Amino acid sequence: MGKKRIAAGLVLSAILLSVIFLPGHTRLRELKAEKEQYERRISLLEEYNKALQEEIERMREDPEYIEKKARDKLGIVRKGEVVYRPSP
């Protein structure tokens, strides 16, 4: 009879611990997955930021690059140049 009580107590304890700790463990896993997503996003944003910083530096140091960007983006041409655009 004593062994049955001990076994029943252990089973009841295991069930009680599962009820108490399982939701917390599930939430912990969810938070870890969310953290990994944020870390990946931070990494991508850091790479993008680095590329923007490099472009800023290039624009500060390279007047030809600025001219090329302006020509491409704004369609600026020099005096006497002719722009050819292919028809669709």
Tell me about the largest β-sheet: none
How many domains? The number is 1
Shape category: rod-shaped
Order of helices and strands: HH
Total count of strands: 0
Structure classification: mainly alpha
> Number of DSSP helices?
2
Low-confidence stretches: none
Oligomer: single chain
Strand content: under 5%
N- and C-termini, Cα separation: 91 Å
Task: Tell me the radius of gyration.
Answer: 32 Å
The level of helicity is: over 70%
How would you state the average pLDDT, rounded?
A: 87
What would you note in describing this structure?
The protein is an all-alpha fold. The chain has one domain (13-74). Helix content is 82%, strand content 0%. The chain has two helices and no strands. The radius of gyration is 32 Å and the shape is rod-shaped. The protein starts with a helix and ends in a 14-residue tail after the last helix. 0% of the residues are buried. The mean pLDDT is 87.
Keywords:
88 residues, mainly alpha, 2 helices
Write the layout of secondary structure elements.
Elements: H1 2-61, H2 63-74
In short:
The chain has 88 residues and is mainly α. It has 2 helices and no strands. The mean pLDDT is 87.
